[in-house]
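Weekly structure sync, notes
Attendees: PL (lead), two postdocs, one rotation student
Agenda item 3: pending single-chain targets
PL asked that the sequence for the first pending target be pasted directly into the notes so everyone works from the same version. It is reproduced below exactly as submitted, 584 residues in total.
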Amino acid sequence: MQEYNVNVIVENQNEFASTCGNDVKNADAKSAGSNSGCVSIKADDKQTITDIVAKFQDYYKDDIILGMVNGKLRELNKTIKSDCDLSFVTVADRDGRRTYRRSVVLLLQRAVLDVYGPEADLHVMHSLGEGYYCEIVKSGEDTSCCELDTSDIGRLLNSMCSFVEKDIPITKRSEKTHAAEALFESKRMHDKARLLHYRRSSRVNLYELDGVVDYFYGFMAPSTGMLKYFDIVPYERGFVLLFPGKNTKSVEPLDTSNKLFHTLDNSREWSKMLGIGTIGALNDAISSGKGQEIMLLQEALMEEKIGNLAARIASDRQKKFVMIAGPSSSGKTSFANRLSIQLTAKGRKPHPLSLDDYYVDREFCPKNPDGSFDFECLESIDVKLFNEDMNRLLNGETVDMPSFNFKTGKREYRGRKLTLGDDDILVIEGIHGLNDKLSHLIPAEHKFKIYISALTQLNIDEHNPLPTTDARLIRRIVRDARTRGTNARETIAMWPSVRKGEQENIFPFQDSADVMFNSALVYELAVLKVYAEPLLFGIERDCPEYLEAKRLLKFLDYFLPMPSEGISNNSLLREFVGGSCFNV
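Predicted structure, written out during the meeting:
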């Protein structure tokens, strides 16, 4: 690696470009920590990373928002106090994108104060498309939110844009935790104050933008001048704050599912019924000895919902195929088993079927560009045979059902014969279950499609939604370590590929589902914490996955632990922590 003095760098931009600029200019977004454009920097405590960024931004197609100093993420206002290796994180990178979104939320908070005054409170509810669904509540009123018209939206946008033009610094200060807790309590940020009550550290970092002070769960942009790309669109009772997507310098129109929104909304009502809407509220329940009660109530509510769903399916005698699909670690297998039990109780005779059994023989499976088998594409399934078998069953014929041998990579027939009578129904689970191209020859009136996902109903606090993808990743880390011998580093490393498959093969079809089922349990992260933390601590500092492990550990640190002994053996959570009565 070539070594530069900060002052010498200014004179050697062409040398920098020739040394590593080609990788920088042409690099697509990668995870933070990429060494593209990494240089050695001499100590100079009079200059910040921002000063250095100014000399190299032209070599990056996306805006630089963080620095990576000796493998550690650092904000741009950090001074270079010792010799170091420095690389840059852009808004297209995973951690850069999170930083940008957090910073825009703070910008929105300042705009809400500007437009509505100190009596209005912003509530960031949950992710929706490439944005956050938000509501504004006036102090002293009930929990209903203010309805915004186009004029209100315009005033918020104008205020945010004016602060961007002024390029106001976002400053950071360290505060004693108990003092920060009191501060947020006085500002009606009760959820944030409640969360800080359980922080072990004696100090926390607070961020301030022109008089608005908040606590966030990660790094922030240095000033509002970087936050040029956003939009606000009215939606349902509130609005959606939109962020850039793959193109980091534009904002696409809102593209989301109304079914998804209402599923999230219904889950929030569940949380209200339980009195658990945030991590702080869950910690309160655990610390007061009500953890078991919360667990039993949540499981009872879920069983009731599965029972109601089974009753709806059973009442329609035309339904012969229940098609279940959802992203990784949604609890599909346990859900399918519990639904089958409820269907049996309603007088139907369910038969489980995995789409994996319809894989084409390995030699005919499509491959990825790197030569590995692509088991997630539709072409890996023998669609023709699947439709033939299903229609034969529908016509009352007896079918010899296939089983796929993953060791030999061949489809086998083991004498498993099936005939569908009047009460029989197939419960089919697989990644392409919602894609009509899979079942294009099966009449629609005979299909009932269910999309299942762990749509976490908890929020961190008023301004920080809990990412549902984080909850699913933690589920998978725990399950894979137990059932597949895969360590946390390997699971984190493969997660981007898993997410890519979901984006291509599952999410585009979620709106076609007859029902969306939320498999998230309000208490689950308090239980998963006990299993996940040792696995995450096992990732070494020099691994590329270390930064993500560190972020997840910080996230789990906000939860009080909860024992798993009281969880019923048919709980969806048992699929991940072990002890399930189902074969999972």
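Discussion points:
- The two ends are 49 Å apart (CA to CA).
- The CA atoms of residues 317 and 422 lie 8 Å apart.
Action: rotation student to compare against the earlier draft before next sync.
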